[in-house]
Amino acid sequence: MTDMTSVPNGWVCLYPQVSSVTEDNRATSQTVTMSLDNRGLAYADGFFTTIGVIDGLILWSDYHYQRLVSHAEALQLNINSEELLAVLQLYAQQLEQGMLKLVVTRAAQNVRGYGYAPSTNGSDCEIWLKATAMRVSTALQLSLPDGSLIAIQPNALAICLASQIACLPPPLAGLKSLNRLDNVLASGELQRIKAEPLASKLASTLGEGLLRDMSGQWVEGTMSNVFYQLAEAPLSESKTTSSIHKDNEDYLTTGQWYTPSMAQSGVAGVMRQVIIDALSTTQYPVRIRSLQDEDLPKLTQLFFCNALRGIMPMSSLTLLSGDVVDFESV
């Protein structure tokens, strides 16, 4: 077990108070306090990413690097992504097992209010990091077509939520920006459902809530992206003819998977892209397709995913009407 005294306790500022590296390649940094003038706090001017660490290595590091590059470009922030990823890897080595949460905000500006100077200074940023020791579940794993492994969680239940998420213009749609109030309220709704007396027996297995955006399309979970399979007819009429394999190894490669577009809402997650890329050369590449109300009774499989938990398969989905669509167990 790693000596966790070597990992900073609490948030550290990587930039502009850059972490130093010792002769034995250990990252060191002082714990500092964020100013109340921080633009991430004042205006949600920035983004974040959550990174799993196993055996001292960053999970899906190439994809987290792509997020750093794409988000810096979209928000016009000056980030040396290669250097930052190298520093994160040093913290991962010290942490060994757990989670790194990275928050990037635009630096304080001389321009009053929302604005920022159209100059190098306007692109300067503050970079914050918190390392948390925790167990990243890998008990059950799937082998992707490229040979890499992805965690798969036990079956759980899903429910459609009344909360909605915002539709955003480019380049904000799909970003993991700091403005997550719609997800906060949706997560609160899910927790209230779990706490209801009638739901007490289901609370332990109610894993995720499905969310619509303001246009009415079902887009993602409260903390995850969603993939689904469809029957030609409603499930009650087609269950006997749907080709579903219960073998974990075939879960991702049998049948056509769809995932909603992130072009106007939602977060284009790391694990979502991992799965899209992994299946791109198979018989059934993932198709980007909107998920509408009329599709829900036709669902034959549904899973959520994120970079920490991997794949979260669902055994049923409770609709807003109260009707339940059942899926085959994985």
Can you characterise this structure?
This protein is an alpha+beta fold and 330 residues long. Helices cover 20% and strands 29% of the residues. The chain contains seven helices and 18 strands. It has helices at residues 39-43, 61-75, 81-95, 120-123, 181-195, 235-238, 270-278, and strands at 11-15, 20-21, 27-28, 46-54, 57-58, 98-106, 125-133, 141-143, 149-151, 156-165, 206-213, 218-221, 225-230, 258-259, 287-288, 299-306, 310-318, 324-326. Strands 10, 11, 12, 13, 16, 17 and 18 form a seven-stranded mixed sheet that branches. Strand 16 (299-306) and strand 17 (310-318) form a beta hairpin. The radius of gyration is 21 Å and the shape is globular. 35% of the residues are buried. The model is unreliable at 1-5 and 233-246 (pLDDT under 50).
